[in-house]
Amino acid sequence: MTAATPQVGFDEFEEQTWQKRLAYVGRLLQRDRGGMLGFILFILIVLTAIFAPVIAPHDPLKQNLRAAKQPPAWQEGGSWEQPLGTDTLGRDMLSRIIFGTRVSLTVGFFGVLIAGTLGMVSGLVAGYVGGRVDGAIMGVVNIFLAIPYLVFVVVVAAILGRNLLNVILIFGITDSPIFARVTRGEVLRIRESGYVESAVSAGASTGRILFDHILPNLIGPLITLATFEMSAMIFYEAGLSFLGLSVPPSVPSWGNMLQVGRQYLTIYPWIATWPGVAIAITALTFNLLGDWLRDVLDPRLRRSRK
Amino acid sequence: MQRYLLTRVVQSLFLLLGVLIVVFFLVRLTGDPTSLMVAKEAPAEQREAFREAMGFNRPLIVQFLDFGAGILRGDFGDSLHFRQPALELILERLPATFYLATVALLLAIVIAITIGIIGGSNPGSAIDSLGRALGLFGQTIPNFWLALILILIFAVNLGWFPSFGRDTSISVVLPAVALGFGSMGQLVRLTRSAVLEIRNEDYIRTARSKGISQFKIGARHVFRNASLALVSVISIQYSYLLGGSIYIETIFSWPGLGNLLQQAVDGRDFPLVQAIAFFISFFVIALTLLTDVAYALIDPRIRYSS
Question: Three-state DSSP class for B124?
């Protein structure tokens, strides 16, 4: 965590072609071991989700009662046919973990996309227009933030019923207040800055100020926030599944697997172990990536001073 | 100071009203709440009777005013499942949740601050590495999975602690560790970075040059200055623990509010769900208000600037 943030000289910003930018990002990655690890894991996880049918050794839904409850390969009674063992219905754990990546990443990605868009627009309006509009928007935001997030999500999920689209919508909407608050704060800070003031006095239009001066400065903090929120959503999705409130039980998701594993915890402990490991690795990935992005995108917030 | 106090109290009341509105409309998100609470197979007359009994056939505004007036009188409606006032059920379960959250928080604070201060004062030492590992794992290991692993190791294999219920005085240990682990990670990170920042201040060097012992410097100078930053975070963590105990209470069959909420959601007992959601939000809002007031008392800069 103490890896030094690379010192950025002004010369590195000259003539930015995309090759130069890419090379620059590469250099930044090389200097941060945590960031590098997060980046590599992130690519691997995304590839796993995309190519799940190719990578998975078995059909994640195929039941085989004769091979049920097999421990991992290195334990007595296990076989390399099912390296991580099988669940109570004889479905291959490894294949189910691989397919579970899809559910988690889908919820995380689209959830953050919706939350980020909603939050950014409302935060931008609140921060830029100010006055009563600001008061009204932030009033609603504060109400939603006053309800403990987990309670909120559980209640809404119970009301709407369990399917993937509902889960994405729930996270997209309930998580947007955080994006709104951060966006508004940034907009207020940017508006105070000298360059926006001088643009206004030079007669720049509202659109120009928004798109040329404010939006580019918002991207950094929002991408960092999105990374951490994606990690949080993957957590909450698994938790909802665990309570039986997320995707239907037939879908191989990490939370659903944990829920089954919990019932057989003392007899077949591996059923609950692997999905937890998968969630922890994914969360670690997004956290490392988020820490690195924060350093790179916002040099004011060096990690050592956080 | 009085002015600040008054503003904050009025703000909190508005927040509470907002939460009331949200909780009221959530149940009506899908239209008629009757379809949420009565089985689909129920005959039409039974549904109609239920609608009549619950007053769902009245105009929305009348229903809302009735709901709000009831809450002012302390009437949160009756649980459909338990057939008794929701408030009674909540008050019965409340102490267990407070107890669990408090133990979890104290555990997290004591361990995190000790490791954070010792580790932060000796960067690179073994304790510092431990602190950094705790900080990272606290954010990446889901608490519901940690709970299962703790049960497996300490209840099933070693038999040191009971795996569920609240029958003995040590029953609280495993749930408190699982619940507080995330907060511990966050607090270690925060304490460590606060200490790293403070240890380079002039007054620490002065104290050291006067020959004051390391322990005294830690206790008197470092801890006191770091504590200001910690107070608000601890309050946030406490409300997070109060609202976030659904998984842990469910897994450990802990007789608290989170467990009750899970049962209510499971049994589609929405009057009870509404009451619990409102009650937990009420505590979080009250806690935030108390923290702000305490903060203003400790730090004069806050009460004068607003």
Answer: coil
Contact A279 B142 (CB under 8 A): yes
Tell me the pLDDT tens digit for each residue of A93-129.
888 888 889 889 999 999 999 999 999 999 999 988 8
Sign of CA dihedral B272, B277, B283, B285: negative
Contacts with A19 (C-beta within 8 Å, 6 or more apart), sequence order = none
Query: Could you tell me the two tokens for A127?
Result: 């921060």
pLDDT mean over A219-246:
87
Taking the Cβ of residue A264 and every Cβ of chain B, the question of whether any pair is shorter than 8 Å is answered with: no
In this predicted complex, what is the ipTM? 0.82
**Beta-carbon contacts of residue B246 (< 8 Å; ≥ 6 apart):** A150, A151, A154, A243, B258, B259, B261, B262
Is pLDDT of B298 > 50?
yes
Q: How far apart are CA A125 and CA A144, in angstroms?
A: 18
B25 touches chain A (CB under 8 A): no
Kindly report the CATH class assigned to B92-304: mainly alpha
Domains of chain A listed by start with CATH number: 90-299 (1.10.3720.10)
Lowest-pLDDT range of A68-82, B239-253, B280-294: A68-82
Contact check, Cβ <8 Å, A305/B193:
yes
Chain B nearest C-alpha distance from A77 (Å): 20
pTM above 0.90, yes or no: no
Domain residue extents for chain B: 2-73, 92-304
Q: Is the pLDDT of residue A8 over 60?
A: no
Taking the C-alpha atoms of residue A167 and residue B196, their distance in angstroms, rounded to an integer, is: 41
